[in-house]
Amino acid sequence: MNHAAAITPAQLLAGDRRALARAITLIESTRADHRRQAEVLLEEVLPKTGRSLRIGISGPPGVGKSTFIEAFGRHAIAAGKQLAVLAVDPSSRLSGGSILGDKTRMSELSRMKQAFIRPSPAGLTLGGVARRTREALLLCEAAGFDLIIVETVGVGQSETAVAEMVDLFLLLLLPGGGDDLQGIKRGIMELADLVVVNKADGDLAPAAERAAADVANALRLMQPLHKSWSPEVLRCSALRDIGIDHVWDRAQAFATAMGASGELPARRRIQAKAWLWHELSDNLLETLKAHPAVAERLVELEDKVAAGRIAPASAARQVLAAFLGG
Ligand code: GDP
């Protein structure tokens, strides 16, 4: 039975959870007919998207991302929001186990009817995960969710992919820190609109204060990304629910300031264009690799390049010629 065929835009727009979950499954499918159905569905609901605040949350493993999202989500829901949490976790492909997506995470939120939690699609490349997460985000918006959190683990390049699909990028850090800022690359710090030092409680409180001061110093040396917002450093305890309401207030302030200046809609337009180019390059590469004449030439040319008998640039030209010629 083809369950996927039964999803209608009307079901999705009415906020039907099962329809939403199934629509996301359709998006994650590798079958060409599923992809086409997903595209049609997306086209139809696209006018109803874009009415949420999109927040990306990243941080090193163990920083308290899921604890934070539970606490933050509670505040947002209390303020009347409908929250969807999506994950970008390419680690499952590399390690065979997922850093983010086990079922016990965010157990409280997952029981609330105002929240929808979707773990990361497994076994895909980062590009694949990011593409599907972007589409899932739009589906969640169409289904009426007005706060979308995209979570990722602070290793590798997934933060950049997430920052490219959200309005606000929030980086969670641990107390302590020091010079290397917990393995968080400088480029990632530069993407952050809010840096939140978590675990600012009990014995860890003084270290959290020091970490916040270190980060504030580091941020002062960086070029701000936006005219209407300078990155802020906050402290909280997700576990004890201290300072979370303030983080929520500042996230709201960000949305207000960036909306009023026009930078938020401008950022979304830039992101949509960048997305088009990602789609184009991914699709082109897939089409090229699937081309029979190219596949043959590729095997041969790869060997020659490896053996140093032909330069990569000239091999690439020959592959393109085979592609365009056939
Ligand atoms: P994640 O891997 O980033 O999702 O981190 P988790 O949310 O699973 O938290 C990792 C550990 O840190 C757990 O044992 C949490 O109970 C603990 N933790 C999370 N937030 C806080 C906090 O605000 N204070 C303290 N002391 N511990 C916390």
Produce a short descriptive summary:
The chain is built from 14 helices and 7 strands. It is an alpha/beta fold and 326 residues long. Strand 6, helix 10 and strand 7 form a beta-alpha-beta unit.
What key attributes describe this structure?
326 residues, 52% helix, alpha/beta, 3 domains, Single alpha-helices involved in coiled-coils or other helix-helix interfaces, 7-stranded parallel beta sheet, 7 strands, Rossmann fold, globular, 14 helices, binds guanosine-5'-diphosphate
Structure commentary:
It comes from Dongia mobilis. By secondary structure, the protein is an alpha/beta fold. The chain has three domains: 1-48, Single alpha-helices involved in coiled-coils or other helix-helix interfaces, CATH 1.20.5; 50-261, Rossmann fold; 275-325, no CATH class. Helix content is 52%, strand content 12%. The chain has helices spanning 9-13, 17-28, 32-45, 65-78, 91-95, 107-110, 126-142, 158-163, 186-189, 205-220, 244-260, 263-290, 292-306, 312-325, and strands at residues 53-59, 83-88, 115-118, 147-153, 168-173, 194-197, 232-235. It has a seven-stranded parallel sheet, with helices on both faces. α9 (186-189) links the parallel β5 (168-173) and β6 (194-197). The longest helix is centred in the C-terminal third of the chain and has 28 residues, at 263-290. Guanosine-5'-diphosphate binds at residues 59, 61-67, 198-199, 201, 204, 237-239.
